[in-house]
Each structure stands twice: as C-alpha cells, then as structure tokens.
Amino acid sequence: MNIDGQQRDMTEALCEKVRQANADKTPLRIEGGGTKAFYGRPVSVKGVEGEALSTREHCGITHYDPVELVITVRAGTPLAQFEAALAENHQQLGCEPPHFGSTATVGGMVAAGLSGPRRPWAGAVRDFVLGTRLITHEGKSLRFGGEVMKNVAGYDLSRLMVGAQGTLGVIAEVSFKVLPKPAAIHSLRLEMPLEKAFQRLAEWGREPLPLTAAAYHDGALHLRLEGGKSSVAATAARLGGDELQGRFWQELREQRLRFFDSQDSRPLWRLSLPNNTPTLALDGDVLYDWAGAQRWLRSDMAPDRLREEVARAKGHATCFTLGVAEPFMPLAPTVAKYHKRLKERLDPHGIFNPGRLYAEL
C-alpha cells in the first residue's frame, strides 16, 4: 500500500554529499528537524564545526501495510505526519517517542532513540525497528534488515542505528512494526506517599494488569490503563483514585509539565535505573516515570558526584541541558574499546557527527 502525499526521494543527492565529504575528510553535522539538537555534544573536530547535512527534504511514507502492521518511511518525514497516517488506521508506534517540537522527523526519532511513558510495557524504539536503509561512508545506499520480524539479515546493524546519534551513517529510510491502538484508555491519580507508591507498583508488577504508564508527581501516583474495555473498567474500579483528566501523559512525554519549566536554571538530568530502585541520596527535585525506572532530576549537584551515586545503584545519568561538557555517562574501558572499533569500521574517516556522543568518537 503506497501512501499519497509529500514524497521526495533525495537519496542520490545525499549519497553524493557523503561521497564528497568522505573524499575530502570533511566532518558532517547530520540534521533533521533540530528538535533534539540539545541532546548530546556539539559536532566538531578540533574546534571546527561540522558541515550541515539535512535530511528534511528526503521525506515520504513509501510503503504501509496496515494488515501486516508494517510501515516504511523516509528519514526526513515529519514525525507528526507519520503518526497521523498510523492513527487513520487506528494504529500507533508502541514506544510513544517524544517530539520536542513540531519539526521532529522520523530519522531524528530513531537517531536519538528516546521513548515515552509506555516504553517499559511496550518496548523501546529499537524494538520496533525492522530494517533501515543507510548511507555509508562510501556514499552507498544499503538496505539492512527487512519488513518482517523473521528477517534477520543485518537486523542487528539496523538496531545499532537507534540511539547512535548519526555517528555511524546517515539514516535514509526505516521500516517499523506498529501496534493497534487500545480499545479503551483510562488514567488515574492516586494521592499517596512516594514509599507507598513504590510498594504498590512492585505489587502490581506481579499481576497481569493493563498498565501502560506509571509516574509519581506532585504527591500522587499517576497511572494509565489501556486494553479491552472490560479489563480497563474492572482495573480502574479496583485501584480507585480520581480520574486523571487532560493531556498529562503527552505533556510528560514532551516535557511540558511545570517540573520541566525552562525558567529553572538547574540542569535537567535523566536517570535510568533498575526496577524497584529505592530513592537515592541526590540533591534536587525528582519526577518519577516508568514506575521509577526513569527519573528526571533538577539539580545543581556536581556531575561526577551525581553519577557516582547513580552508578552505585547500577544505573546511568544523562544530562538534557546544554552547556554540560559531557552529557553522557562515561563508558567503561572495555565498552569504549568496542565503540571505537565499530566507529572505525563504519566511519573510518570520522565524517559522521564526530564528537556527538563522546569526544573520541
């Protein structure tokens, strides 16, 4: 099923720019909609900023089979357009990725690898990627993976593109598996102390409840139930609390709640922690998402001290605020070695977003 609408295939133009950059050893700053430009380090080599390579014009949904729950889309396609096409068939991308602005693109979503409140229950971005078309350092457009779950040829390389921030190649096209939208959705707000909320979440985690989001904010546990109408209604009646009105989950996903107010000068940190991790000895204000596995922290703590506390809990911390020299958790020596080898293999001249993740990559 082909989709009518804005379709632009800029593959050859992108390939030519990459071929020239590789020949000249010119670093490239790969750009989509720019809504996640804050996420990571500046792209530069020895203080020289990379040359912009935009994928915005390379857009369009090239194939969509609602029956098979598979869609293929070019990287520059607006994320809003992509989701609207799915919604017309009562389908969705289960990882609920954030946009952070109206110009967000599908390629940027994959490159950043960020997921929304549904992630612990439905999966992360990489869990929905079936295949990719990638422009290599030689300026070749190569297909990895496919459009069916049984296709494993190159599947792992496709997944490597998720969260790589464009450091391994230019994402030109992505195939996703999608999910039907739930028949019923109901959100609740239950006032209770944080410790009790953690206890309840641990108990509910052992039951087959239709939970798809859980966040603790402003002295209350917020829950989202999704699934069959009877299951959602029965669970809502059992758990009690007040019905949660409005667009809480979308505002949480897009960081538009008061907690994320840009007027707060303290750096914003994202903490990823094992399930059932107790509260940590950290200075600042915390919003708990993913049933506590993802925590947003507003804090003036020194980055090294903050990361030491998080590492002791077997987690990691990423800064979402511009100006922090190293936003990502330092890699362990063995992991760093493999990252470097992979970068050298896929990008020997270091032209793709150099320094975006780490200075040495």
From TrEMBL:
SUPFAM superfamilies: FAD-binding/transporter-associated domain-like (SSF56176), FAD-linked oxidases, C-terminal domain (SSF55103). InterPro entries: FAD-bd_PCMH, FAD-bd_PCMH-like_sf, FAD-bd_PCMH_sub2, FAD-linked_Oxase-like_C, Oxid_FAD_bind_N. GO terms for molecular function: FAD binding; glycolate dehydrogenase activity. Pfam families: FAD_binding_4. Its EC number is 1.1.99.14. Keywords: FAD, Flavoprotein, Oxidoreductase. Residues 1-181 form the FAD-binding PCMH-type domain. PROSITE patterns: FAD_PCMH. PANTHER family: D-LACTATE DEHYDROGENASE, GLYCOLATE OXIDASE SUBUNIT GLCE. This is Glycolate oxidase subunit GlcE. It comes from Pistricoccus aurantiacus.
